[in-house]
Amino acid sequence: MSGIRLDKVFKRFGTTEVIKGIDLEIEDGEFIVLVGPSGCGKSTLLNLVAGLETLSSGTIRIGDRVVNDIPPRDRDIAMVFQSYALYPTKTVRDNITFGMVTRRVPRAEQDAAVDEVSSLLHIDKLLERKPGQLSGGQRQRVAMGRALVRKPDVFLFDEPLSNLDAKLRIEMRTEIKKLHQRLGKTIVYVTHDQIEAMTLATRIAVMDNGHIRQFGDPETIYEHPVDLFVAGFMGSPPMNMLRGRLKRDGSAVAVDAGEGLVFPLPERLALRLQQPEGHEVVLGLRPETIFAAGTELPGADRFIFERPVDVIEPTGPDTMVVFQAGGTEAIARVRPQDAKAPGESFRFEVEMAKAKLFDGKTGMHL
Amino acid sequence: MSGSGTDGIVRQGGWRHRVARVVLYAILGLFCLYYLVPLVIMVSTSFKSLEEIRTGSLISLPQEIRFDAWAKAWGSACVGVRCDGLRPYMWNSVAMVIPAVFISTLLGALNGYALTKWRFRGADVIFALMLFGAFIPFQVILLPMARALGMMGLAGTIPGLILVHTIYGLAFTTLFFRNFFISVSDSIVHAAMVDGAGFFSIFFRIVLPMAIPAMVVTVIWQFTQIWNDFLFGVAFTVGDSNPVTVALNNVVNTSTGVKEYNVDMAAAIIAALPTLAVYVIAGTYFVRGLAAGAVKG
Asked: What compartments host this protein (chain B) (predicted)?
């Protein structure tokens, strides 16, 4: 039974406030991902949970215990570091057992734990090597093995995959997820990679500048971002953000993005809006909701417009078509066979039901 | 990755390049000679008899190798009124240098570790002050130190000299280790903390084994400094507790009897041998340590 609860957590380094009053409640067995741009305080927050940094104010509970004044070793946590932080002079085996040695776990128990973990992580043939003789992926496994043998209540991961190459990263991502499904332990995972966040988390906390902007399951974060920051951070390529003004015509509401582009809002959204005609808004359209006209089954709330193609970027399964709209660059995700050469005119179709609308001044979701 | 990483680099060819090479090696050879000649003369003189020294020239090689001078320098040369050679003073030096090097190196490592991995308020100020100690000339501390040793009852003793060298050496050893540990990732220490290790446990089990290259540099430096020191030795010890440097001075600068150059030379070489040995032995480890540290990660 080990959830984590943070209440009004503040952290200052000298006069700079890095964590600005965070409340977070993590259930037992959840996989929480802290995601945000660099410098947003996510690693500091993780270190606070680990006890590697001291709180300026607030309380942190792990399970039912307030751990503010409890050193890392007594918090029943294990941590995986970005740089792996393996002990370079020790063999893989000694790296894994070091925690047990300092805790005076009997030798037989140590050996059993090493056997179990090393076969789980496929590092059983590497046990007598030194970290310097391992590849990045192997080091990563050893670092995870060192955390696993502790059998802690809470696992903390600090950007564990960011030093791996792309292919290995995807492999290890899957393994970490498997591991979580198998162990069912609480995990707090820090990353700046929003794809990692989406794929791994049961819930995501999007952080910016020492605050948590939004805390919710991946679908909510993706489909119902609370503000422009969250909307822009999650998703790749990022959401298109077209600035415009509200245009009312009876009960119908549209967004005039200039240059003759007037996006009609779906009824569900239109009825909810209280803002007057001419109110400044930002229309958020994810690239995958814009496609070549007529290539999807017809549906309600579609809007078709024409723009010349600026650039095309094939990714394999899809091709990104870059064009100008509402004074900014926008990206549509089309099937490769529908793409056209730069300069040619292209008929785009937008699924307006998936459109997000934000206040132009506050950036909050409307 | 290999030790010969520069072997494959394409080099400039042509006669100009070759001439430049020849000039380079000629200059290198000249400097080699410049540094080697005094040593050669010392060694050759130490093997000559007094007779040969008086009659022959300075740079001529000995006609026959004689170890008389070496035996005398080691066992029966007169240092002041005592005629036991350098031997007892060598042991004085050994008894002084080993604890002094060991303690100052260990404390320097501990300081460097605390200053970088257990950051505390004022750590930088303390480091700056310690560093300042590296710039204080020996002469400045002679009188206050003599007074302090006197009050501690250590005046004129080897333990007193060990204390002086340890304290004086701390500035350097701390500097060496701090600069090494600053490049060691903090997350290794963090990982060890999460693994349940405390301050000393992390120091001895994780950090110190990583610091072998720094340790070798420090040991060579400290050993050379302390073994070769004359001023502290002559100021803080008396007669029988003199280190070998002071004894050597007394052998060479004796004003009575005939000047035995061969004995002087042998004595000087004997006094210098330990530092040479430390450099050769530790130096190989030093290079090995550097190479091991070069493996990434």
From this structure: Cell membrane
Contact between chains at B187 and A83 (C-beta distance less than 8 A)? yes
Is residue B77 included in any domain, yes or no? no
Of A233, A253, A282, which closes a domain? Answer: A233
**pLDDT of amino acid A335:** 93
Counted domains in chain A: 2
Torsion angle, alpha carbons of B94, B99, B104, B106, to 10: 130
Which one of B185, B193, B295 has the shortest CB-CB distance to A72? B193
Q: Decide if A87 and B194 are in contact by the 8 Å CB cutoff.
A: no
Domain harbouring B106, CATH code: 1.10.3720.10
- Same domain, yes or no: A337 and A248: yes
The pLDDT value recorded for residue B31 is 96
Q: How many helices (H) and strands (E) does chain A have?
A: 9, 20
Kindly report the nearest CA distance between residue B181 and chain A, in angstroms: 14
What interhelical angle do A136-148 and A92-102 show, nearest 10? 20
Euclidean distance between CA atoms B191 and A265, whole angstroms: 53
Strand A31-35 and strand A186-191: pairing?
parallel
Q: Do A99 and B295 touch (CB under 8 A)?
A: no
**Is A184 found in the same domain as A41?**
yes
Cβ pair B267, B248 in contact under 8 A: yes
Using a pLDDT cut of 70, give the percent of chain A over it: 100
All residues of chain B having their beta carbon less than 8 Å from the beta carbon of residue A88 are 188, 210, 297
Tell me the average pLDDT across B103-127: 92
So what's the pLDDT on residue B295?
Answer: 42
Does B98 score more than 90 pLDDT?
A: yes
Regarding whether A116 and A149 lie in a shared domain, the answer is yes
Chain A: residue nearest B192 by CA? A99
The answer to whether residue B47 is domain-embedded is yes
Query: pLDDT tens digit string along B147-158?
Result: 999 999 998 899
Range of the domain at B289: 87-296
Residue B79 near residue B250, CB atoms below 8 Å:
yes
Instruction: Quote the pLDDT of residue B287.
Output: 66
Å between B196 CA and nearest CA of chain A: 4
Interface test with A, best of B183, B184, B194 (most A CBs within 10 A): B194
Both A31 and A168 in one domain: the answer is yes
